[in-house]
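#data-curation
PF: Archiving a pair of folding outputs for the training set. Convention for this channel: one message per protein, sequence first, structure tokens after, nothing in between. First:
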Amino acid sequence: MKDLDFLTSTPSRQIDYEKFDTRLLDSVLENETSFLTCMSCGGCTATCSAGNLTNFNVRKIGLMLRRGEIDQLSVEIEKCMFCGKCTLVCPRDINIRNVVLLIKKGIALLKTENILS
């Protein structure tokens, strides 16, 4: 029976959407509704100045925001240089620069409320 160890149950890799913290996402969508139309095409990431110098990825920011991964997001968002190239190339005309700014403000607000460490 040792040969069948791969059949033993492992922790589920299923995503539990109930555990997501959507407060920051709700705040961003309230102030920048165009973010709803993002199709994650990658144009923003391809032209990002910070992405050329670091491992910054604008699409990853959107994914972390939608997943409610605020702790990781606060570290990643600090790499943005606010150059605005992402906004210029967006085919959906999303003001990504404003989205990043709203995320930064929202994280600061959550930290002042002692919700985050």
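PF: Second:
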Amino acid sequence: MRRLLWAAVLAGAAFAACAKDAPLVSAEPELEKRMLAVAAELRCLVCQNQTIADSNADLAVDLRNQVREMLRKGQSEKEIVDYMTARYGDFVLYRPPVKTTTALLWFGPPLLLGAGLLTLWLVLRRRSRLPADQFEPDEADSAEHDAATARDRTR
């Protein structure tokens, strides 16, 4: 019982050590709303699959603070997005524009999927045309074959 209690205490201490503080809510709710709107358009450069509004990575927190400061200075959302794009490239945009430099981002996954499906279709088509003796027997068929061969030898 003591071991179980100590394990629970140690697990709670480990969880408390790993937990991060909740983000502070700004005293300016309108500014916070604008900051979150801009942050929802920018990709976290650490996580890469989250916006900086959703990410808890240290860089995302720094970028949110930077966006907040830029908004306080009176910069527009477009100016902030343009600044971040100039600094980090189109990759920082959660929805990058369709242009020649981002074509691979937009069209690469469907092309890879199409190539994979085409390859699968070709392989299956080629295999369907092969005679049955070109395939290795299944394990169950092999065991039956071995048993039948053994019976034939004993006769």
